[in-house]
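Example (one chain per record):
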Amino acid sequence: MLQAKNITIQLGRKTLLQNVELCILPGQITALVGPNGAGKSTLMGVLCGDRPAQKGTVTLDGRPLSAWPLGQLALRRAVVTQHSALSFPFRVEEVVRMGRMPHRPNDPEAEEQLLVSLLRAVGMLERRHQTYTTLSGGERQRVHMARALAQLARPQTQGPARYLLLDEPTASLDPAHALMLLELVQRVAQEKIGVLAVMHDLNLASIFADQVVMLGQGRVLAQGPPRQVITRERLDEAFGYPACVTPHPHSALPMVVPPASDRHPHTHHHTLLSTKPMGEPS
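Predicted structure:
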């Protein structure tokens, strides 16, 4: 398993993470949720090995992440970040093939079948020859999902567990593609792959995640199945927002909706945007 133990990071007098513990299990999807500034991206950086912790360790199968040779680590863990720094005119299929570099493949036919399968899975097969830099943000996100899955793909069904780390994977996607991608992630998890996804959409986290970890001010406020974590009390504690949590009509999973309100914000619209002094007749 991929595990964070007692992770603490301070920046000056500000504590970004405080004694955070997190375990990503093979075959499960864990959603990392919390308000802006809660420490989600910082924790993701630690789990990826991009940011060292001042206290605590991240281990893969009980071995510190820093002790893994990069080539071996690349076969066990793939990362999809929010933004890609790729600025060269690679074709879509070339970006996906980058995920195969740690494998040193020698079967061109099998590699082509894998490429086609992954591009089809993310809805980008017809764009395989398009230049990556001409794609929209959502399309780039889907290409990088295919690249990460190519990195984790292997011919044998048995072997050590693998892990997929996703930083806001649906942020640039329209609703249809967001659902498509998360359904793909569900299928991936069934292949003994542990998934951690930073998510802002609590309803998608509730529907697709097996476990939810809620951060607030750098601390783990709650973790467990969606029904235990996505509650009115927890949301009020983490976000300071009195949301209404109601059961999904089909699955009974918790769904978050805005509270009912009898206010009419448009009535005093001019007091927010008008350049007239407050109280002056309009």
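Caption: The mean pLDDT is 88.
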